[in-house]
Amino acid sequence: MAMDSAARAVAGMLIVLYLIAFVIPTAAGQENVSSPDSGVQDLYLFMEEEDLVDLYTRGDASEERLNGSARLSPDGEDIELEGVRFRGTSSRELPKKSFDIRFIEPQEFLFGSNDMNLKATYTDPTMMRERLSMDLFHVLGQPAPRTKYFDLYINGIYEGLYVHVERVDGDLLESNGLDPAGTLVADDFRGNFHLPEVNRASVFGYPIDEQDDPEAFLEATMDSRGEPDWGAFRDLVGWVYRTPAGPEFEEGFLERFDEENFIDWLAIHYLIGDVDSFGDDYWLYLDADNPDAEWMVIPWDKDLTFGSHTRRGATVNDYFGYESPIASGWDNDLVEKFLETPGLRERLDLRMAFLMNEVFTEEYYAGQLDAHEEAIGDRLNITPGEDAFALHPQNHHGDLGYTAYHTEAVLDFVRLRYRFIERAIAPGSGEPYTASAAIPAEPEGSTVYFTDPGGWVIATLEVAEVTEPGTIAATVNRTGINPGIDRRWRFDAGDAEVRGELTLYYRNDVESCCFPAENWFVVDAAVRDGDYSQWDLRIAREDGSGNRTTLETYVNPYSNKASADVSLQGTTGFMLVLPDQAVPVTG
């Protein structure tokens, strides 16, 4: 992936230092990338009408399992079930339900487990984020749930494409070469706000030693599997609380944690922008038989990744963002103190630089997206009918027919997120919304990024022809008018002259937990609202008198971008306008 010269130099230095000082095997792992299987497994669920009505009309939070049976084909043998219920927390309130199905016997098609976590991924119009994310951990040889696509039929009616995510339990541990009887604890503190002494989202940062019976308190407030060593977990929580960030924390961390595992876990979360992961979306594991064992982390729940997250209190939206900070989140002092400890933060930065440039490249993601698209086929565009979606509205919340745009937005997230992380590793200087990029003599076919000091990408240029190399400066300024997007992009090419596809990025966001709540569109809708639609935006070139000439433009509102073929020489201005605004103006 292309980057400006300063960032490339910093990244190169970091990679060399990384290879010398902190080698974690990855190259061999990439040759064994976990990829989608050749198809999607059918699952036919059968329930008595009375039980089905009960399932969909009782309270969403009910944990009671209802009777049913399953088959792998319409005329296949019945497979006995222990029961069926909905699964998830906030996802239970969504119109396409996720399911927890428990079988009487272990099933080969569930990786040998008897537990099935069918995730609806209704908030993800690509339905790929969960699988893409978990595969990253597998590439690095880190423990993580395996995933598999299923077509779910309920009483003979197609009710959607689903992703089964392997349960984190002894079976998962054993399949990863770990002790199946080891300690497994999930940070479930934020699920206990009803308790008067619980006032934070993570147990890390809680004064556990102030409890009369710390181990009993942890057992009551944490999620767990098997028979955890609560004493060992109490010691870990107490150490995090007592130890300040710095050399003492670094020494204690390296004694207690599997360094490679933890740093990979953290690095991947920042690469994919998972800002929802440091509350209850991970498990901690400790080998029960090894007195010198180190804690490891196992990921969970990766739907809110690659730019997808809550806006205005809801996850069902089409907004796009990649600037979530490299920070703790959910009051997690373990992560926060790690980041505030220079020696540990340096290790993380080295690892992220290496993974971005050598392992999880743009080419890696493009190949994975292609494989997932081939596996899923056209399922995302299935519409309700006589044989489909009697209980659910459709596969995902978004407009049907735009799968290619949604998938492109995932790849755009990677490109832009990496630029943001590069700036976080090596901060730039200068004013926001200003950038410069060097155009070498022969960069044809490369992509040049105009990234401002804060890590926001003003524009990209896919270079087709260079007549004269040089440095091009870019700025974005408010216009005082709003013909569609209330900004003007200016490019000062100096002596340079270059031709290629220019992509302008604009801000279109609202209140959220994690991204700048800034909108430049005429309305604050993610894609369209009434007569205003971002699909209608066109790039307009401005001459010295302020006259606009609209260009043939490609728009992807799910990435907040518009592209057109241009030539840059001298000073050139561009705006993004709606069709009825392509008229001469001044200003």
Automatic annotation (TrEMBL):
It comes from the Archaea. InterPro entries: Spore_coat_CotH_CotH2/3/7 (IPR014867). This is Spore coat protein CotH. The lineage of its organism: Archaea, Methanobacteriati, Methanobacteriota, Stenosarchaea group, Methanomicrobia.
